[in-house]
Amino acid sequence: MYALDDTIVAISSAPGSAACGIIRLSGADALKYAGKIFTPDKGDFLNNPVGSSVIPGRCRLTDPQGETGNNQQKPSITCPARIFFFQGPHSYTTEDMVELHLPGSAPLLQMILESLVNFGARPGRAGEFTARAFFNGRIDLTEAEAVAAVISAQSDGELRAAERLLDGELHNRCLALSERLTEILALVEAGIDFSEEDIEFASPAQVRQQIAAVKDDIEQLLFQSLTWNELRHMPQVALAGPANAGKSTLVNALSGIDRSIVSSIAGTTRDLLTVPMALPQGECMLIDTAGLGQVDDQLAEKTQSLSQRAIATCDLLLWVYDITEPDSAASALPPASLKSPAQVITVVNKIDLAPESTIKNLTKLKAPHGSSPVLPVSAQRGDNVENLKQLIAQALQLNLPTSDKHQDMPENPHLSQTHYGNIALTIRQRASLCATQKAVDQALSLLAGIEKSNLVPSELVALELRSGLDNLGQISGEVITEDILGRIFSRFCIGK
Questions:
Q1: Is 133 helix (H, G, I), strand (E, B) or coil?
Q2: In sequence order, what E strands does 293-417 have?
Q3: Residue 46: phi, psi to the nearest 5?
Q4: Which CATH superfamily is domain 234-398 in?
Q5: Average pLDDT estimate for 69-88
Q6: Which of 61, 73, 215, 306 would you label with 154, given CA atoms 20 to 30 Å apart?
């Protein structure tokens, strides 16, 4: 499927014009082909490379369309460039690698790419540089998928999850499970080999106990994980309250972006405005809603209908009211008719304009839903805005979504100590883990039969354990097919 004995080349930078463009080569002749168009400013490094280096110089191309006669030279194009040389086996692909960093002109990059292909380099396919890293043992399949996830990450949460995979978290956990299953399989097969002898390496009950422990760890891993689609859902945090309570100013202060129009005129916000906000452990989407109150016209009625819908469907509600208003006490709680989520934080705004005695009286305020926090802030001055971010992060952590796959989890003392969403799994990875779990379950059932009647052959237990090991091996790539590789690396862009 993939040839590994030639030199590949591709544009590695993003499409379009930019200040810098990158062309990447990998293979035994990477430096040789680069030397055809690159001249270093000093020395003769291209003929005597040592280790990994950065070499400034110039690229020179002859324009094939500019030939005017046998006695005339073709016009040439020159541009400043730098070569980044990574000597194998210490490169990403473990082969000699060259990166040409040039002005990011799309036509220029294409001309250089075509010249390198004419000299003998083969155009790289989607994901082929990472595929070489996999085939050459630099990374396993989970880390290769993590590279694709880093490239395509659209939020901080996705990036963090991809980095965990890239750091080998899933690989290490699957490796530990494989080692334990291998040890159990060795005991079972030893018992089969010496079945005629009066030797018992481990009783069926002991083997079943060890397999059950592995099963618990597989269930724990599945319980801790979530899908990438679940990860892409950013929690929705709606800001609601009376008109002119300072919700838009607070949205700008929390997000650090002047997204919402701010005015002293009540009713400035006439639509739902959304803006992402970075949290210590992820991101959420802030929704600035129109002020609630009396409806004077049809437009205001539609606006408040949108606000109520956002409040009813959000993951967390920030109820914001103005402490300086004469009827602030009446605004301190959401209306009883308002459908709000279980998680509510009451935000008392504009404390920079209130006397100290009024702020002290906030301790007597009865929070909505009994235990929801109450926090005085000044969105204009920034008082307690960072503390509010911490409260939002804590509330969202407590209000993480659960899915049906977690409802029927067996009781396990380890599971209550885990945090949902610790690892993001691809559909392929989850399917392999579930297949492993099924094989382990079947082995436990067979062992129960052996303990009761001794009529079930141990060879069937060994067969299920091997099946479990094969499925674990598919996660890391120890057991793999061309179809799986094609599906994984086809998701990469050219040059990665």
A1: helix
A2: 316-322, 344-349, 374-376
A3: -60, -25
A4: P-loop containing nucleotide triphosphate hydrolases (3.40.50.300)
A5: 76
A6: 306
Give the whole-angstrom CA distance, residue 403 versus residue 425: 14
- Tokens for 486? 């094609």
Long-range contacts of 261-269 (CB under 8 A, 24+ apart): 266/291, 267/243, 267/291, 267/300, 269/303
Tens digit of pLDDT for each residue in 325-382? 766 555 556 666 667 676 888 888 888 887 776 666 665 555 544 556 888 888 888 8
Domain segments of the chain: what residues?
A: 8-139, 166-229+411-477, 234-398
Rounded CA gap, 173 and 352, in Å?
52
Same fold, 8-139 and 166-229+411-477: no
pLDDT value of position 335:
64
Question: Among 173-177, 227-231, 241-245, whose mean pLDDT is lowest?
Answer: 227-231
Asked if 239 and 288 count as a contact pair (C-beta separation under 8 A), the reply is yes
Question: Is 242 in contact with 269 (CB distance < 8 Å)?
Answer: no
Listed residue (129, 208, 116) closest to 440, CA to CA: 208
Fold classification of 166-229+411-477 (topology level):
Four Helix Bundle (Hemerythrin (Met), subunit A) (1.20.120)
3 state DSSP class of 393:
helix
Which among 191-200, 397-406, 480-489 has the top mean pLDDT? 480-489
pTM: 0.62
Q: Cα separations (Å) of 170 from 71, 303, 308, 320? A: 64, 47, 42, 42
Q: Is 342 helix (H, G, I), strand (E, B) or coil?
A: coil
C-alpha distance from residue 397 to each of 315, 340, 420, 424 (Å): 11, 18, 9, 16
Question: Which tens digits make up the pLDDT trace of 435-453?
Answer: 999 999 999 888 887 766 6
8-139 is classed CATH 3.30.1360.120: yes
DSSP state of 494: B
Query: With contact defined as beta carbons under 8 Å apart, do 361 and 281 qualify?
Result: no
DSSP string, 217-273: HHHHHHHHEEEHHHHH-PPEEEEE-BTTSSHHHHHHHHHSS--S---SSTT---S-E
C-beta of residue 126 within 8 angstroms of C-beta of residue 489: yes
Decide if 323 contacts 351 (C-beta within 8 A): yes
d(CA 238, CA 250): 12
Rounded distance, CA 220 to CA 240, Å? 38
